[in-house]
Amino acid sequence: xxxxxxxxxxxxxxxxxxxxxxxxxxxxxxxxxxxxxxxxxxxxxxxxxxxxxxxxxxxxxxxxxxxxxxxxxxxxxxxxxxxxxxxxxxxxxxxxxxxxxxxxxxxxxxxxxxxxxxxxxxxxxxxxxxxxxxxxxxxxxxxxxxxxxxxxxxxxxxxxxxxxxxxxxxxxxxxxxxxxxxxxxxxxxxxxxxxxxxxxxxxxxxxxxxxxxxxxxxxxxxxxxxxxxxxxxxxxxxxxxxxxxxxxxxxxxxxxxxxxxxxxxxxxxxxxxxxxxxxxxxxxxxxxxxxxxxxxxxxxxxxxxxxxxxxxxxxxxxxxxxxxxxxxxxxxxxxxxxxxxxxxxxxxxxxxxxxxxxxxxxxxxxxxxxxxxxxxxxxxxxxxxxxxxxxxxxxxxxxxxxxxxxxxxxxxxxxxxxxxxxxxxxxxxxxxxxxxxxxxxxxxxxxxxxxx
Length: 452
What we know:
The protein contains nine helices and 14 strands. It is α+β, with helices and mostly antiparallel strands. The chain has two domains: 13-164, dinb family like domain (Four Helix Bundle (Hemerythrin (Met), subunit A), Up-down Bundle), CATH 1.20.120; 175-452, paralog of FGE (formylglycine-generating enzyme), CATH 3.90.1580.10.
């Protein structure tokens, strides 16, 4: 059985884990404040879509989870506002109902998260984050990493809320660089040979429960798109009448298309013979060479059928992204075990949009596929399910309650994902109808006929 990638904290693990925890938490908080400070107080308390919470709810919820898990659970301190636990429990209150709750106002929410963070720093100063600590919450600084990831995930959710809000732009970023010179000459697909590989992880210090444990998976040979499906390619599906032809859709998908009146990706609108899109308040022509985004699973699946292909399974996606045929190892990232750099992937809201297809040659996987990390989340054909030997930790509501056929798995992260919440083993999931998320896809096909 091949080995998986190395851990993230070589050398002095005690110092490294504490330092990494502080940096990750500080990075997340800077982003949280940037997203909430960018809008007016009226915008903070407004519900911009019934699919999303008011931004002020996300802000206070971030503080509440940190109060619960870092200050109280890990630190053993009394906590700042235990009385808020029920109010900011995501499972008790659906997003559509949250504006009617007696939420903290913006000033109260900001003061709350700041006070909680003071308690977090107090806990971090004395916490034993060594790998041999029998307390799994503290070993490797896991609970700090878990909360940094939680905050960044809500930051991504708030970024999606920004995309849904109306009004002039309040977020700004430079456009990504043009595609590299070799992008146009890339092969359309790469071959992933048959054989086993190690899926998941048991060594990544901050991996969440659904990424564990590592296990061997046998994958048949298949072909995978070298880059994500682009806007230009997807427009061909639209122009061919893809949204009007039920043969490309699952029965559930076709019912959804008709019920929701889908005719193009979310935020697209016709302009003559072309298309415009709305992106964080900007209205602009749809760039043909950029990965398509804001499509639901049903749309991705229908496009793949129309193209004579299919969506990759989750295992296929991970093998293409991580398996190194030279060593037989599963890498942490497509490019190796090192943390993401700006040369590897489009992450962290640096550009506020995907980079052109074929970008990030330095981030290519051993398979030759590019942009498997960053740019757009990629729908897979797989339902969200536990790995063999799965154990819920530290609570069932993080993953276990979502297992089943209702949710489809997405992989790879998007431009709005921070590196702390994105790695080769990271699993995301959502309903197959969701389009407000920063999701695209790439397609696959069996290679049995080629190697029969």
